Amino acid sequence: xxxxxxxxxxxxxxxxxxxxxxxxxxxxxxxxxxxxxxxxxxxxxxxxxxxxxxxxxxxxxxxxxxxxxxxxxxxxxxxxxxxxxxxxxxxxxxxxxxxxxxxxxxxxxxxxxxxxxxxxxxxxxxxxxxxxxxxxxxxxxxxxxxxxxxxxxxxxxxxxxxxxxxxxxxxxxxxxxxxxxxxxxxxxxxxxxxx
Length: 195
Ligand SMILES: Cc1cc2nc3c(=O)[nH]c(=O)nc-3n(C[C@H](O)[C@H](O)[C@H](O)COP(=O)(O)O)c2cc1C
Known about the structure:
Blueprint: E1 16-21, H1 29-43, E2 47-52, H2 67-70, H3 79-88, E3 91-97, H4 105-112, H5 115-118, E4 128-134, H6 144-156, E5 160-167, H7 180-193
Parallel strand pairs: 1-2, 1-3, 3-4, 4-5
The protein binds flavin mononucleotide.
């Protein structure tokens, strides 16, 4: 008699989370909020990775439309590290301060360079995107401008824009630490995205 022993094979799928820190000010408010979100995701069993945009060499889009041929950007810089991550991570969280009602130029350069991915007309997948924004004022329309940029950025890379955390009234470096409820919101956002 042949005895067949079937061992239960368990596949453990770890969600991969990418955090993009868009502030040129290191360890400032956006960075702290992003770390909280990534901590929440990590505690849910995700594999997390954080990129600090200002530490990368990302040139602005030159608008030459070379990418229109094949969806490949001809500029050779650190976007080569980012493109594959933008195309494969299960969750992408962008955290950024508001600069003149827009995004800091280094982060905007990263987004503009995704024209090469927009060209590919990627379908929206199950991958999730979220945005954390922080600004000094309490202006009602503080996030109106960047709202569209972030929405169409995620659309261009085939990611569903599922959530955002908008923080007003925080200006000084690390001032966010005085607001545990915002830190908790960021942590909970990371946890929620991991599910
Ligand atoms: C160049 C520049 C422009 C800014 N523009 C705005 C603005 O339009 N509205 C606002 O509320 N805060 C503005 N701020 C304040 C930052 O958004 C705020 O200090 C934020 O907490 C910085 O986050 P960080 O520590 O992650 O860099 C600006 C700051 C800088 C340096």
